[in-house]
């Protein structure tokens, strides 16, 4: 059977390994997953309560206006409900952005290494991909590439902070860059981890209201999968001017987010105790990973997220990852990105101590 020829150039996205399958495969009683940047403290207690209390709604189609959650997000960011779109994860809105602006004659721009789904969605349409030589976001290099291929580039992705590397631009750099870009080019600010960056350094904070009030060609993406502990509920959002939101709505399937996901996200949004606990403990534990790297002369990029990436010269990241896996520690090998590196989610104090214990033996 023949398929669309674009599929030949697409790599399948590698998701995190399943805990139960790993336990069964290696006969392990305990498996610690530090691979998918999930919240190590689980589900927001308020979200969990909302899921239980609304379980009886599972047989009904959800409210397709998503009015309750939209209003909560609008209040949080001081925008209008018409500026909000809800997706099945923020990656669904990435897909909307690509389909709304690109086809096989167009291109998009990103830094050298960033979230894999940008490229996967783009190549489904035969879209050309431009990447900087720099792995991280180099604003000058991004702008030089944009100027060179300005007629082709109709979407620019800025992942702030960047997944899977963890670095983050300052807000002033971002705004100065956007000001130089043509208004017909859509700029996607992927803020999946921006709450972490904002907590660590206020200069990294991107305010969606300020962003869309100043620029008509920008969409800000957020998610409930990381900070709010709802990765399994698959829910994210986009904030943009009404013109962009209206265009995205033409690509949205009805009932794309479940009843329970909407209720859980609404409750999690205001669980301030859980949010603060997550942010505070994340960066307290991050310090141990930084100290470990320095002690063992492992290269890393300062991270503004809930993960850290280790780079290796002599050691092989695949070998290290597989040996850890057999000990019940799951981390993310970045060989699929062309990097001899691993990405490690910041876990609880216990989970991290187990990682250091096993990794020290192997390393």
Written overview of the protein:
It catalyses: L-histidinol phosphate + 2-oxoglutarate = 3-(imidazol-4-yl)-2-oxopropyl phosphate + L-glutamate. Its EC number is 2.6.1.9. It comes from Campylobacter volucris. It holds the Pfam family Aminotran_1_2. This protein is α/β, with parallel strands linked by helices. The protein contains 14 helices and twelve strands. It has helices spanning about 20-25, 45-55, 65-75, 90-100, 115-125, 140-150, 170-180, 195-200, 210-215, 240-250, 260-270, 270-295, 315-325, 350-360; strands spanning about 30-35, 85, 105-110, 130, 155-160, 185-190, 220-225, 235-240, 300, 305-310, 330-335, 340-345. A seven-stranded mixed β-sheet has the order 2-8-7-6-5-3-4, sandwiched between helices. Strands 1-11-12-10-9 form a five-stranded mixed β-sheet. The chain is globular and about 55 Å long. It starts with 18 loop residues before the first helix and ends with a helix. The mean pLDDT is about 95.
Which features would summarize this protein structure in a list?
363 residues; alpha/beta; pyridoxal phosphate; 14 helices; 40% helix
Task: Give me a quick take on this structure.
The protein is an alpha/beta fold and 363 residues long. It has helices at 19-26, 45-53, 67-77, 90-101, 116-123, 139-148, 171-179, 194-200, 208-214, 242-249, 259-268, 272-295, 317-326, 349-362, and strands at 32-34, 84-87, 107-110, 128-131, 153-159, 186-190, 218-223, 236-240, 299-300, 307-311, 329-333, 341-345.
